[in-house]
Amino acid sequence: MPEATDAPVIMGNVPGSYALSVFRERHPVLVRQVRDALPYSLDRLRALDRLLDEVVRDVMEPLDGSAHDHAAWARWGQGRFGGRWVDVPFLWGESYFYRKLLEATGYFGDGPWRGVDPFGPVKQAELRSAAVDDELTALDHAATLPEHEQAAGVLLGSLWGNRADLSHAITASGGRDRVTDLVVDDSALLWSLLRDRPPGKVCLVADNAGRELLPDLVLIDHLLDRGLAAEVVLHVKPYPYFVSDATPADVAESLRRLAAAPGQAGKVGGRLWRAMGAGRLALRAHPFSCAPLPYSDMPDDLRGDFASASLTITKGDLNYRRLAGDRFWPPATPFAEVTAYFPGPVVALRTLKSDVLVGVGERELAALDATGSPWRTTGTHAMIQGRA
Ligand SMILES: O=P(O)(O)OC[C@H]1O[C@](O)(CO)[C@@H](O)[C@@H]1O
């Protein structure tokens, strides 16, 4: 087996790769969708058109010198500007794309579009959808299940919510049907980290808003309500990112949605609302959450936060890439090895949407590959993967 540190960084330019398809296909479509999502003024439309042109021509331009974080991006992107978008590490290039998208919409500017979430319409539509009504109603039945099934249900709800599919999990079966699609299942470790010690601080590093954040909040309520956590710190992005990533405004909207719902969902919302006011649930939006860097590069204050937690739960594919490192690891590389730098127990809940993979043995890998389905990148499979 090659040394783990030899694992190649995932670049954007490998022909036929998933990463290349994101740059070539997904990003131009996203710019067009954002362009049509809100009644942008002519200057914003022109800026979006310039970004589209830049992405299609495939020449990476620096951020405007007036941008508040221009210096940071100039440092991170040294030697990359003027070159092709696809010739940079996948994680870096994607992150920079979303930063430039916000620049084009005027999110950080002095004009009227300052602070307007370009993905707001998509997020709002999802939060208001009938599917969310159904998912929240399903909590009433889930509350009647035996305790261990409720615990399994809230965990799987949060996990599969990463595919924006809460309905798969909080069901009469407590979500057991979804267990078959778990590539790794360290849920026993997660529960033992919570149950076998006095309740401490749990950090939950959120991913998407809407149909992922709602079941994340249900999981947080379960931890607080059952005395499995003394306090929870919910980490979200300080500004819109990767389309649907949760921001503080999204947490507020989700809590309002929960609190206004009838039945069990309303009770969960009410408890979380009070927990927020009492300091048992804290919200953190650290700038590093939108940095184009792996967690191994995290700053000291963030490291200190995770170090003081009895458990950190990370959500989603992007957080997994940042946690493990966005590399083509030999899949059997132990998770504990690639996360040895992390300052405390950590469990990743992730549906698989990109090529990064560790902790999967050769035989399991062969069996999954034999199915012929693109199981590594399409969100059909998931993992609960951790280390104490
Ligand atoms: O919302 P998640 O689970 O973090 O997934 C984001 C994923 O979507 C992509 O941006 C594009 O499919 C991946 O590169 C990324 O890992």
From TrEMBL:
Record flagged with keyword Disulfide bond: no
Domain named Damage-control phosphatase ARMT1-like metal-binding: residues: 23-361
UniProt keyword annotation of Protein transport present: no
Keyword list, A-Z: Hydrolase, Manganese, Metal-binding
Catalytic reaction(s) noted: beta-D-fructose 6-phosphate = dihydroxyacetone + D-glyceraldehyde 3-phosphate; beta-D-fructose 1-phosphate + H2O = D-fructose + phosphate
Pfam families: ARMT1-like_dom (PF01937)
Gene3D superfamilies: Uncharacterised protein PF01937, DUF89, domain 3
Reported cofactor(s): Mn(2+)
Domain of life, source organism: Bacteria
Family to which this protein belongs: Belongs to the damage-control phosphatase family. Sugar phosphate phosphatase III subfamily.
Cited PANTHER family: DAMAGE-CONTROL PHOSPHATASE ARMT1
Name of the protein in question: Damage-control phosphatase ARMT1 family protein
